[in-house]
Specification:
Radius of gyration: 28 Å
Number of helices: 19
Number of strands: 38
Helix content: 10-25%
Structural class: alpha/beta
Amino acid sequence: VVAARTGRAGGRHMPVKRPPHTQPLLQPLGLFMLEPSFCQPTRISRSVARFGALALAAILAACGGSDDDGSANAGATATLAVLETTDLHFNVRSYDYFKLAEDKSYGFERTATLVRAARKEFANTLLVDNGDTIQGTALADYEATISPIPCTQQLSMYKAMGALGFDAGTLGNHEFNYGLPFLNQVLGGGLDVEGVDATKKCAGAGYPMALANVYSSKTKKPLVQPYTILERTLTAKGADGKEVKLPIKVGVIGFTTPGIMNWDKRYLEGKVYTEGAVEAATKYVPELRAKGADVVVALLHGGLDSAAYSPTMENPGLHLSKVAGIDAMVMGHQHSVFPDAAATPAYRQTGVDNKAGTINGVPAVMASSWGKSLGVIQLALQWDGSKWVVNKTASKSELRNTQSKNAAGATVYVEPDAAVAQLIETQHQAAIQYVKTPIGSTDFRMSTLFADVGDPGAIQIVNQAQQAYVAAYIKASLPQYAALPVLSVSAPFKSGFQGGADYTDVAVGPLAINNAADLYLYPNTVYAVKVNGGDIKNWLEAAAKRFNQIDPAKTTEQSLISTFPGYNFDMFTTADVQYEIDVTQPVGSRIKSLTYLGKPMDVAQEFVIATNNYRATSGKSFIDKLDGSGTIWASPDANRDVVIDYIRKNPTVTRATNGAAKSWRFAKATTAGPVVFSSGANALSVAQAAGLTNVSLLAADDGLGKGTSKYGIDLSK
């Protein structure tokens, strides 16, 4: 007697064959269907007894209780390839909606090609997504806020992923950016949380989500299921070398960063709460094992941080890997890579082995972002006669990239999967038409190509928009702060991290919505914080971590820009505030000659600073008041929309009015050797147009393989 359900092997739906005589026999017996990999019948008719030992033996055979698929195959081996995408950020297509042009360096449509190739290579695959999936492009905003998709329609991102048949996924922090009702809809319903209709049934993601460390305040239960158990049939090699089919249970558990409680406080406060990843894993991994999971895969929307463990830490991968029972770990959030074959890997902490691809002995991957890589963990499995056991030392991890170099040194791109683009073509074209909506014009090239060295060209208008917006609100609604000066800070959100094209770069001429979205990349909301002059100095000191300390006596080349993210390089762009950054000094002692209205800034004078929700609530590393305690207004409006509205009201954008106000400069220093930095290829004219006469082009190709050029800066000028 064999009774089977639909299983999956190699990532493809595969029906397990059932002999034609099975159903006629089972139905008169009154038997429920038996799971081949679990064998948990809920009812067996008493008539089974009439068939005695023969019938019982037949049933046990179907359960794997005979030598046919159990102990006789002890010693069988198999490889389960866990395939990971992470931080796709709605980049279905290899297309930049800000530049209205193809960009072959990223896109899920190219990752899909890698997935299909891996499925041909490996008989057994498991495809998982690690979150930050539904936000990040104009198409994402279009479907969430501009022309919201109906309940019956899948998000374009999920629709495209459906072509590949994902097995499971988790939620990243950006899944919460559009609020819980929207998240409930796009996940298909069922979020039992205040303000959300849990009974709503919608199209959904198309694959099960698992998230173990976010709870509903209403129910005190996980917001979504903490884990899922996937039942599959593996193609294995028996001890005799012959192919055999054996069942497996794979437990998938997910974790996201607790930072969601700060970054999306307006949507989540009082409605959900978080738990540390280690605490959640310690609770639920034993449950997975008790329910028969042969293999446990942890989906961590977080990365690696060498700091001591804290339940609120953003990147707890080093600590999570030590939880007993986790066989493999996929990571993300940091938009980095693991394992890293570079001479100087991104991660070098104790317990990290880039060569073996393990974190404290656990096979792991982090597949970059935007679909630029596919993570592959090859788990080596051995059947002990009743279950699968993972041989971690024989397992290996790797990244497969959508771009590489050929023998001639030219960049080669993986071709896109033709099936993906056509699935979302209608929505893709609708988003393009939306972002083309004209709102103004500019007489200068608005760029962050040289924001790190003093060009405010793409940042000043953001600060102007934020300042005007907050000042107007205070005047109308917060009279107790009306006497305080309102200032604004912003940062170069696109500053080359993703390569030579990863800069805000708006051409002279018409300004459309896509250009405004390029000026402000993230879906943050405007926040206002109250600080004093001393806080401002400390804030700027923290932002100045963007630079390495330069030794004036060193004769060899020194790199100006550190690993401190460009999106944290907050700056003022107004004549009212002036200061110097002395990069020859250590961190914390770099801000010099700080003035307000031409006079030394009074450390006790109070100011209101317009910023964003991310900085205002999770910027404690800048100043203590940026933990939310200094916030006097949390606006509901996105910074990007505030910029768009400002340009609509002031449609004639000029360098003189909107792109020339420099609050800061480098303190003069004479260096014995060159000080260098990388930026977009052959863009010296942009620096010259911004009046940066101390910048020179040293090499059209800086050798980093990212499409960037090497520039020099003379700090003595």
